[in-house]
Amino acid sequence: MPIILNRSPAFYNSGIKAKLPLKHVVANAVNVSSCIFTETNLRLLQSFLKILFLSFCILCTAGRVNAQLTIKGTVFDSSKKNYVEAVRVESTGGRYAVTDSMGRYVITVAENDSLRFIYLNKPTQKFIVKDIPNINQFDISLHVNVKSRYSILKEVVVYSRHYREDSIENRQVYGDIYNFRKPTIRTSVSPGGAVGADVNEIINMFRFKRNKQLKRFQARLEQQEQDKFVSYRFNKKFVGRITQLQGAELDSFMVRYTPSYEFASMADEITFNKYILNASYAFKIELLKQDAKK
Fold first, then answer.
1. In this structure, what DSSP letter does residue 56 have?
2. Which residues touch 208 (CB under 8 Å, ≥6 apart)?
3. Average pLDDT of the chain?
4. Cα atoms in the Cβ-side hemisphere of radius 13 Å centred on 73
5. 240 plus 272 within the same structural domain
6. Residue among 81, 63, 34, 98 nearest 194 (CA)
7. DSSP class of residue 197?
8. pTM score, two decimals?
9. Which of 66, 169, 234, 272 is deepest in the core (most CB within 10 A)?
10. Cβ–Cβ < 8 Å for 108, 94
11. What is the Cα–Cα distance from 196 to 71, expressed in whole angstroms?
12. 138 is in which domain, residue-wise?
C-alpha cells in the first residue's frame, strides 16, 4: 500500500473516504481543549474551596479551644469565715496562682482546662472550667481549720471573728468594686461557641470618668479594710496589758505608734509584741523628759 503524504491544506480520512478541510479540525481541537481546560479549573476551584472551608473550621475550633478566661475567687477554711493563705491554684494547662493573705486568687486559664487547689501538699478534686457557674467569684471552702496566729487572748479572738465576718460581708456587698479591673480588650465565647471581642469591655474602655470613680472607690474600700485590720490587732485592751498605760497616756501612745498595715499583717506574735514593748519604753522615756522639764 502506497504511503500518502499530506502536502495540501487538507488530509485524507480513511474512515469516511473524504477529505476534510484542516481548518475545521483545528477549530474542533481548540473547542475540545477549551472544554477540558474549563473543567480542570472548576475541579481545582472546588478543591481549593474545600481546603479553605476546612481551614476555617479548624481555626474556629482552635479559637474555641484556646479561648482564655480569667477566674477569680476566695479560698476559705471549713468554717467559711477564715481566709486560707498560700493555697496553690493550678490549671491543667500549666498555669498557677497563689492565694494572698485574704485568700484571694486570680488565674488565667483555657476554656478546656481544669482547676485544683493544693494546700499543705494536699490537692482537692479537679474543677472543670466549663462547669464553673461564676468565673468572677469562684469561692471554695477547704476541709481544714485555720486558726489565726494573732489570737493571743480571748478578747482578740472575738475581735478577729468580728473582723472576719465584717470583711466577708463587705466583700459580698461590694464584690463588683473589689473585683474591678481596668477594662481591656478581651475575647468572649457566645453560647453557640463563636469567639469574638467582648463588646462591653470595649465600651467600658472609653468610660474614663466611670473607671476613675470605681478605681477610687475600690482604693477607699481597701484602705478601710486595712485600717480595720490594724485596729483589731492594735487594740486598746491588748496594748494596755503590754504597756501598762492607761487613760490619756494610752490614747496618745495608740495614736503615735499605730503600726502600718504591712507590718501588722506580716509580723508574727513575738515580733508584734516586741514592737509594742519597745515603743512603750521609748514613749515612757519621753514622758519622763517632759516631766523633768516642768
1. H
2. none
3. 74
4. 22
5. yes
6. 63
7. E
8. 0.36
9. 272
10. no
11. 19
12. 67-146
Q: Which three cell numbers stand for residue 250?
A: 494610752
Q: Is residue 275 part of a domain?
A: yes
Residues 25-36, mean pLDDT to the nearest whole number: 47
Kindly state the percentage of the chain with pLDDT values over 90. Answer: 29
Please count the helices (runs of H) and the strands (runs of E) in the chain.
Answer: 9, 12
- Tally the domains of the chain: 3
Other CB atoms within a 10 A radius of the CB of residue 152 amount to 17
- State whether 39 and 104 are in the same domain: no
In a domain, 269, yes or no: yes
Please check whether residue 135 is in contact with residue 70, taking contact to mean a CB–CB distance below 8 angstroms.
yes
What tens digit of pLDDT does each residue of 242-253 get?
999 999 999 999
Residues 71 and 133 in one domain: yes
- Give the CA distances from residue 158 to residues 69, 225, 276, in Å, rounded to whole numbers and listed in that order: 39, 17, 21
Q: For residue 278, is it within any domain?
A: yes
What is the largest distance, in Å, between two alpha-carbon atoms of the chain?
152
pLDDT at 201: 61
CA dihedral 179, 181, 183, 185 (to 10 degrees): -90
Do 23 and 36 have their domain in common? yes
Confidence band for 178, pLDDT divided at 50, 70 and 90: low
Q: Judge whether 113 lies within some domain.
A: yes
pLDDT digits (tens, 9 = 90+) for 105-162: 999 999 999 999 999 989 999 999 999 989 999 999 898 888 644 332 333 333 344 5
Pairing outcome for strands 114-119 and 88-91: antiparallel
The per-residue pLDDT for 14 is 46
| Beta-carbon contacts of residue 266 (< 8 Å; ≥ 6 apart) | none
Rg (CA), the chain: 39
The CATH number of residue 137's host domain is 2.60.40.1120
